[in-house]
Amino acid sequence: MTGYAARNAELGRAAFSIELKSVNSRFLDLAFRLPEELRSLEPLLRERIAARVQRGKVECRMTLAAVPGAAPRLAVNEGLLAALGEASRAVQAAIPDARPMSVAELLHWPGMLSEDPSAAEVLRQGALASFEQALEEYAASRTREGEKLKTVVGERVSAMKAILERVKPMLPDAIAAYQEKMASRLREVLSTADEDRIRQEMAMFGIKIDVAEELSRLQVHLDEVQRVLAAGGAAGRRLDFLMQELNREANTLGSKSVSREVSDAVVELKILIEQMREQVQNIE
């Protein structure tokens, strides 16, 4: 299913943004585009998306940008500073004329300054909070789409049921007329054949072209589609299977058709099944 959500937040001195979007896919395919500062979050994000989404090609994109005018929060390496102070005093004790290190020299010493460790945790927790909000919005957008698809598929099911109800009364007369037509042809070809034998053969043929079973199975499958839609929840794979079964029964019905009216009805059924199949690919 398709879905989209986006959030923006200011996390310390960083402007943070997240975008979640997905397109249709039969399986779950996750892709992440994260800044290096948040790369460690990927396993957790993957787990949380997988807990809410079962189908779709989902992309999670996060970006960070410096907030204009925001000063970095720096931490002094106190252990290194103490060690340098001790070394400086030892040098001055040995060489009294030696010039002590200036503040600038100390601050430029490699490893003396670093980002405040708490800033990284603020960034991480803020990113996770924004992600959860975006995931909620994303799930809500997919729910809205699912309700629309449910309506579309339900309308197709109702249309198919109406076609079946239209076809059922046609069948006895259509089969009888076709049997009589075939019997007439057989009489012409087998003018010396036994009438009872001809009737027996036509009865066997009538059994083969009887489509009551196919109509019954189509009705059962359509009832199941309605039940699955009414139950809610993840139903995409179940509906995929039902579309295959509906298509198979419609093909069998078409192969046994004995009248133009029935053949036309089968074409209508197959069009509706294909329309439903396309929509079902979008359902989780």
Strand content: 5-15%
Radius of gyration: 37 Å
Structural class: alpha+beta
Domain count: the total is 3
- Count of individual beta strands: 6
> How helical, in percent, are the residues?
55-70%
Give the helix tally.
9
What's the average pLDDT? Answer: 80
General shape: rod-shaped
* Main sheet properties: 4 strands, mixed
Strand arrangement across the biggest beta sheet: 1-2-4-3
Q: Alpha-carbon distance between the termini?
A: 6 Å
Low-confidence stretches: none
H/E series: EEEHEEHHEHHHHHH
How would you describe the overall organization of this protein?
By secondary structure, the chain is of the alpha+beta class. It folds into three domains: 85 residues; 42 residues; 138 residues, no CATH class. It is 63% helix and 15% strand. It contains nine helices and six strands. The protein has a four-stranded mixed beta sheet with strand order 1-2-4-3, with helices on one face. β3, α1 and β4 form a beta-alpha-beta unit. α4 packs antiparallel against α9 and α5 runs antiparallel to α6. The mean pLDDT is 80.
Secondary structure elements and pairings:
Layout: E1 3-11, E2 14-23, E3 28-33, H1 42-52, E4 56-66, E5 74-76, H2 78-94, H3 103-107, E6 113-115, H4 117-167, H5 170-189, H6 195-209, H7 212-231, H8 236-255, H9 260-280
Parallel strand pairs: 3-4
Antiparallel strand pairs: 1-2, 2-4, 5-6
